[in-house]
Specification:
The chain is mainly alpha-helical. Helix content is about 85%, strand content about 0%. Helix 1 packs antiparallel against helix 2. It is rod-shaped.
Length: about 100
């Protein structure tokens, strides 16, 4: 989570720096508004592209993780759980279903 906070801080700092630079630049109001709109649009496109790339990477990693679980760990766990389910069914049939009553 630290990397995300650092990245957010860098992006926010860059945005504030760019905004201050634009506001103090000697331009007419209409030119300044156009520059701000252009820079804002560019920044939005960059963020969308980065988010899309991140989403693709996370999706790919999730698919790989599922494949690993299915081939290595999950298959064995399912077999173990199936055995436990059978044991539970046998136990739920009631007392003495498999056991003989004790002789006195």
């Amino acid at each position: 989570m630290q990397t995300g906070k650092v990245l957010l801080g860098v992006v926010a700092g860059a945005a504030v720096g760019a905004a201050i630079g634009i506001l103090f630049a000697p331009q007419k109001g209409s030119e300044l508004r156009k520059t701000i709109a252009d820079k804002g649009g560019d920044a939005l496109k960059t963020v969308k592209d980065k988010f899309s790339g991140l989403k693709d990477k996370v999706s790919t990693l999730a698919e790989k993780g599922e494949e690993i679980l299915e081939t290595v760990g999950l298959g064995e766990k399912e077999k173990s759980l199936d055995g436990k389910k059978e044991d539970a069914k046998k136990d739920s049939k009631g007392p003495g279903a498999e056991k003989s009553s004790p002789a006195h």
